[in-house]
TrEMBL record:
GO terms for biological process: amino acid biosynthetic process; aromatic amino acid family biosynthetic process; chorismate biosynthetic process. Its cofactor is Mg(2+). Mg(2+) binds at residue 14. Binds 1 Mg(2+) ion per subunit. Coiled coil: none annotated. Its main location: cytoplasm. It is found in: Cytoplasm. Keywords: Amino-acid biosynthesis, Aromatic amino acid biosynthesis, ATP-binding, Cytoplasm, Kinase, Magnesium, Metal-binding, Nucleotide-binding, Transferase. The gene is aroK. GO terms for molecular function: ATP binding; magnesium ion binding; shikimate kinase activity. This is Shikimate kinase.
Length: 171
């Protein structure tokens, strides 16, 4: 079974993906890590050195590669992955399930304020400007996210209950 998790940064894709993979006894893959291993460089370095267009092309290649070859896994994608190069259509075609982990703007702000230093995209944004930044991004990305097979509302739910909710949809 191929399961893909999409959603904005901080929505819990990696956390839930790892928990779900453990529960289902299948492997967990993080697309950003797959790209970093393949290109032998970090995502921020790739963005700075070769630019976003290069990164998005490579992201598309690696996504296709993972979805075409591997079997039985949970794949966590980058927040922007579904929005470029027809990636959402690729996921919907090649994966068995695509889940959008939906978190409200206030929910994302609350989560991301705690990890701002580790998030290059928002590191230099003033705390009071974060809701507007996230809102604008979500507005741009929502049409892609909403194409997922399943939409999971993640606000005010702990990871274990979200994993249980996903498991029920897989049964």
């Amino acid at each position: 079974m191929k399961i893909v998790l999409v959603g904005y940064m901080g929505s819990g894709k990696s956390t839930l993906g790892k928990l779900l993979a453990k529960k289902l006894k299948i492997s967990f893959l993080d697309l950003d890590e797959v790209i970093e291993e393949g290109l032998e460089d970090s995502i921020p370095n790739i963005f700075m050195g070769k630019g976003e267009i290069f990164f998005r092309k490579k992201e598309h290649e690696y996504l296709n590669n993972v979805l075409s070859k591997k079997n039985n896994f949970i794949l966590s994608t980058g927040g922007g992955t579904p929005c470029y190069s027809g990636n959402m259509e690729t996921m919907l075609t090649l994966a068995d399930h695509v889940f959008y982990l939906k978190v409200s703007i206030p929910g994302l702000v609350k989560r991301l304020l705690l990890e701002k230093e580790h998030r290059p995209l928002i590191k230099n944004i003033e705390d009071e400007d974060l809701p507007e930044f996230i809102g604008k991004h979500l507005f741009e990305r929502n049409n892609f996210y909403l194409k997922a097979n399943h939409i999971i509302d993640c606000d005010d739910k702990d990871p274990e209950s979200l994993v249980a909710e996903i498991e029920q949809l897989l049964a």
